[in-house]
């Protein structure tokens, strides 16, 4: 497991980004937005609490569970993860 994020592109609520652009930008977009991330019946959802709307829903049922990330997702959807 990495000691730092391997994220190459962040997911932000479009409306939050617009609102943030109208501020003095004294905080980062990550600090400004208020997202929840969790599992749904079909995958993972990012929900904007500030605007009470879906940011993105990812269907993980099509994930190849034989690959490392697929194994982690499959375990996490069952409530545990042997990798964490």
SSE diagram, text form:
Layout: H1 14-21, H2 29-32, E1 35-39, E2 43-48, E3 53-59, H3 68-77
Antiparallel strand pairs: 1-2, 2-3
Describe this structure in words.
By secondary structure, this protein is α+β, with helices and mostly antiparallel strands. It has a domain at 33-84. Helix content is 26%, strand content 21%. It contains three helices and three strands, in the order H-H-E-E-E-H. It has helices spanning 14-21, 29-32, 68-77, and strands spanning 35-39, 43-48, 53-59. Strands 1-2-3 form a three-stranded antiparallel sheet, with no helix packed on it. The longest helix is centred in the last third of the chain and has 10 residues, at 68-77. The radius of gyration is 15 Å and the shape is globular.
Q: What is the compact description of this entry?
A:
The chain has three helices and three strands, in the order H-H-E-E-E-H.
Protein traits:
alpha+beta; 84 residues; 26% helix; 3-stranded antiparallel β-sheet; globular; 3 helices
How would a textbook summarize the main sheet?
3 strands, antiparallel
Q: How would the global form be characterised?
A: globular
Helix-strand pattern, N to C? HHEEEH
- Number of helical segments? 3
Question: First CA to last CA: what distance?
Answer: 8 Å
Topology, number of strands? 3
Share of β-strand residues: 15-25%
Structural class: alpha+beta
Strand arrangement within the widest β-sheet reads 1-2-3
Average per-residue pLDDT, rounded, comes to 80
**Which segments are poorly predicted (pLDDT under 50) over 5 or more consecutive residues?**
none
Helical amount among residues, as a percent range?
A: 25-40%
Please state the CA-atom Rg, rounded to the nearest Å.
15 Å
């Amino acid at each position: 497991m990495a000691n730092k994020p391997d994220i190459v592109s962040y997911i932000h609520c479009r409306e939050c980004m617009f609102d943030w652009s109208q501020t003095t930008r004294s905080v980062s977009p990550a600090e400004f937005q208020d997202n929840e991330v969790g599992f749904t019946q079909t995958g993972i959802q990012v929900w904007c609490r500030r605007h009470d709307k879906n940011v993105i829903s990812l269907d993980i049922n099509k994930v190849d569970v034989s690959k490392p990330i697929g194994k982690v997702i499959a375990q996490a959807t069952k409530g545990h993860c042997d990798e964490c």
